[in-house]
Design brief:
With about 375 residues, the protein is of the alpha/beta class. The protein contains 17 helices and five strands. α15 links the parallel β3 and β4.
Amino acid sequence: MYGLDNAAREALQKHLRNADELFRQKNYTSALAELDKALAIDPRSSLARTFRERINLALKQLQPGAQSVGASPHEDQAAQIPSLFRDIEGHLSRKDFHTAKTVAQQILAIDSENFYAKAYLDTIDQQQRQHIAEVANTLQSAPAMSVLPPSDLPKGSLTMYREMLKEFWFDGKISSEESRQLQEIRSLFGITTAEHTMIEREVKLQAYIDALQIAWKDGVVTENEQKVLQLMRQRFSISAEEHLSAEMKIEEARRSRSSKGTILLVDGDMETLTGLIAELKRRNYEVLIAHYIEDALNVLITRTPDVIISELFFEQRGVDGFSLYSKIGELPQFRDVPFFFMSSYSDEKVVRAGVRIGVDHFFRKPLDMKQVITGIDAALRPRRNI
């Protein structure tokens, strides 16, 4: 794999995929032919050589004439997998993400370990998020307010690589052989060192969070559990800050289970936000924070709050809370979300004009917390009674 250009790498990957499909169909002769083509491109490919040994072993275990036996129903289903992958591509080209996911899940129902189907699910999610971002982007008038994600989407193979890392790190360490296999996979799929480092860190942190959740399940961390967590912190190099962050995530998840609703606060004034956030959390509201209008639009790509409370004026010239209200109003999914302003500006004419265009309420700064909570509760009460 080392020194191969992109065309050669793609050809090698194609032959390995073909060999894998043929092997699952027990068409060993054709699978070996695909591996010969792969080795002709890269004679040093340990994946191809290991795969070839696996097929030869399977052939030795077969009794004479066993290869001519008719295919089982499961083998017939496996033969449909290449056609199903082509169907996924067609659905993606039409932006029919729901059907594309359904087809990928059909492949996993036939072959639950098919890494390419798992990778496709990741790709479908990424393209769906990009499509939503493109729709949101049409609402924005300035380049500085773009909500599009980076143009280069994460590779679907990263999902497969993440699963491998989870398996290899299960015992808390990676052997030299596992390290060699990971290097081979990174080279085969073009996974960069930076991507490997990022995913490996995510895997370690998630494993630690999972262990914390298990330890806290009954509300008491035993001495033995403490020792296990300490060992994981050492092996995974979990810092004190990361440990604290993991604890906060778990605690946040606990609170969100009984959350009364989600409030999006849009304001650059941290002094105002600090007191309001504390009051809302004390009353079991989940709080999302955005300091600028473009930050709020980015949040709304993935979350739908129950209430939005925004400052009227921001530091950016020509940008105000009415701009945010107008843009949100153009999206059907947010038209029924209550929208409040909070500001030290108190011109009654502006307040009345805002109410006439649909703003639910103005809260004057410094905020009367009881008034704010009463307004939020009143706005959410009709939903709770549904």
